[in-house]
Design goal:
With 149 residues, the protein is mainly α. Helix content is 62%, strand content 0%.
Length: 149
């Protein structure tokens, strides 16, 4: 499946090819070939890239000339509210207030980056803090502190 709008949306989201490839679990070379049209991708990979960029798959499948000529990019075909980001922000606030850390609110790639950039002691502390956070959340759920409404 060709994705002629991929470069447009990657640039609009201010991501390098390397960063987008990392977040999507692809090699930079593979992403380069998809982005330049030298290679198509399967529907699952196309949807994954759309999810990482937080755009509709149809937006990636449309050619965007303005990615190359410097014009301001148009708005997406429909507004997208990043509910996951909102939920992560709420979780981060709750955990920070309750246990003093919020690693459980981080995406997997953020945790990896944190551990790679820090010391092994930092990584161990992140694991311990995440365990405390999960225990707190489990207790809150058991006590009825979180409802689906």
């Amino acid at each position: 499946m060709p994705l002629p709008g991929l470069k447009h949306w990657r640039l609009r989201k201010r991501l390098s090819q390397k960063e987008l490839a990392r977040r999507a679990g692809l090699t930079s070379h593979h992403l380069y070939k998809i982005e330049t049209g030298k290679r198509g991708c399967n529907p699952e990979t196309a949807q994954l890239l759309a999810d990482v960029l937080q755009v509709d798959l149809e937006d990636l499948r449309r050619r965007r000339e303005d990615a190359l000529d410097g014009k301001a990019p148009p708005k997406p075909s429909r507004a997208r509210i990043p509910y996951r980001n909102v939920h992560q922000a709420y979780l981060r606030l709750i955990l920070k207030g309750a246990v003093g850390s919020a690693y459980a609110a981080m995406d997997e790639w953020e945790i990896e980056e944190y551990c790679e950039e820090g010391t092994w002691e930092d990584a161990i502390e992140a694991v311990r803090a995440r365990k405390r956070e999960i225990e707190f959340l489990g207790e809150a759920l058991e006590a009825g502190g979180a409802t689906g409404s």
